[in-house]
Design goal:
Length: 431
């Protein structure tokens, strides 16, 4: 057995690869493990030991960034505020993640001093949000009549949208690329990230394929929790079980039966174990079966009726993965003006035909399609590896898994008891 150790703060093309151990065994299965607040996460890399010399870790643009700048192995291949703040303190806000093209609150933000940078990169530091600047589509069914921005980004034609970097692992389960589904392929996404985030020139087809091959070989899941290992006593936690998980597009779509709401069967074997592990199994059962009256969700209720009786797995239905098994952009209300916090912009959109008005923090998929019906819609992410990449939702509005559970309980009037909330958090933190 050989062991490779990554020292704390080891730098790779402007990213900090945090403490981890990559293990190679006789069967050539190579695993890296990284601690998080809920235990330990595990990444399986199909070709072998994690190679940090390829183009994913190289600066391919002009501003020092690499793919890994915003997709850290130690953050389950996303980034977290805790570690972004460490990078700020270590470099006085000059690490490549801190760039005004999309890292600052606005492209005109003052970054002349450390204090100014701390203020100007507050969305990145506090919520791990990247600013995505998008033009309103020329064929849009709406106009942007007003922009209320706390940062001075007030254009009505190019909107500043603040979103979490999605993890670059478990990609074989994807049915939609990016929160708004704007990328047609991973190859296209790699190129756009280089020309946009890294401010570089288009990369060759060969380099694109190297990046896609690297990302596609990664599988990540939680392997240890407060109750111990998640792959013993018959449980199927960790990356190795996920590697062999069956999947195809539409595998368990409630809109195209056959469908089973019992989409998660990772931890049922823990039901007779100790209290902490029993909580995980109870949470999984709740996730599969707790009745939810789903109402007011555009993109879903207009297809199945309003209200519609479902469970968590109505939307999180890919077996043991947790995303939707077909592309499905929906609006659960996260972008609504009623949920606005002082650090977020508010856009007033007017329908060109009806003059109807909608206020939203992020028009979501409508910025791609131009359709009024798509305002506020985003995809649901893959749930595996949640513990290592807080905060949650596309806009980082849930600081913890408890906050995420509380949002759903309030939004849909589920009526969860505190014990049920705790059990759901135990389950989600074990994914």
């Amino acid at each position: 057995m050989t062991i490779r150790r990554f020292a704390p703060g080891a730098a790779f093309a402007g990213c900090l690869l945090l403490t981890g151990i990559a293990v190679s065994d006789d069967s050539q299965r190579h695993i890296s493990t990284f601690g998080n607040e809920n235990g330990v996460a595990q990444t399986f890399n199909a070709p072998g030991a994690l190679d940090t010399t390829g183009p994913f870790f190289q600066s391919l643009g002009t501003n020092g960034r690499s793919c890994a700048t915003c997709h850290q192995p130690g953050d389950n291949w996303s980034v977290t505020p805790k570690h972004i703040q460490i990078r700020f303190d270590q470099t006085q806000g000059l690490d490549p993640i801190f760039r005004t093209n999309d890292g600052s609150n606005c492209d005109t933000s003052d970054v002349s001093t450390v204090a100014a940078r701390r203020k100007s990169y507050s969305q990145l530091l506090n919520k791990g949000l990247i600013r995505v600047s998008m033009d309103v589509p020329a064929n849009a069914e709406f106009t942007v009549d007003n922009v209320d921005s706390p940062y001075g980004c007030t254009s009505t034609t190019t909107l500043a949208l603040y979103r979490r970097p999605l993890p670059s692992t478990n990609l074989r389960f994807l049915t939609t690329i990016m929160w708004d589904g704007r990328e047609p392929s991973l190859s296209n996404q790699a190129n756009d990230a280089t020309t946009g985030h890294a401010q570089g020139q288009p990369i060759s087809a060969a380099v694109r394929q190297q990046i896609v091959d690297f990302e596609s070989a990664l599988t990540t899941a939680q392997i240890e929790g407060p109750g111990g290992k998640l792959d013993d006593h018959g449980a199927k936690g960790g990356a190795m079980a996920l590697v062999s998980q069956a999947f195809h597009v539409g595998i368990n779509d409630p809109l195209n039966p056959p469908f089973t709401p019992a989409a998660m069967d990772i931890f049922s074997a823990l039901a007779s174990n100790d209290n902490k592990r029993q909580a995980i199994a109870r949470g999984e059962a709740l996730f599969n079966s707790k009745p939810i009256s789903i109402s007011g969700v555009t993109g879903l209720n207009n297809l199945v009726g309003d209200p519609f009786q479902g469970t968590c797995t109505t939307c999180h239905n890919s077996p043991n993965v947790g995303n939707h098994s077909v592309p499905l952009a929906i609006d659960i209300g996260l972008n609504a003006a009623s949920h606005r916090t002082p650090d977020m912009p508010l856009y007033t959109l007017k329908n060109k035909t009806t003059n109807a008005i909608v206020q939203t923090m992020d028009p979501g998929r409508a910025m791609i399609t131009g359709k009024w019906a798509d305002i506020g819609k985003t995809k649901g992410p893959i749930l595996r590896g949640l513990s290592g990449r807080a905060p949650y939702f596309h806009n980082g509005s849930a600081a913890t898994l408890q906050d995420a559970v509380d949002f759903y309980d309030t939004r849909f009037g589920i009526g969860l008891s505190q014990q049920e909330k705790n059990d759901l958090v135990a389950f989600l933190s074990s994914l």
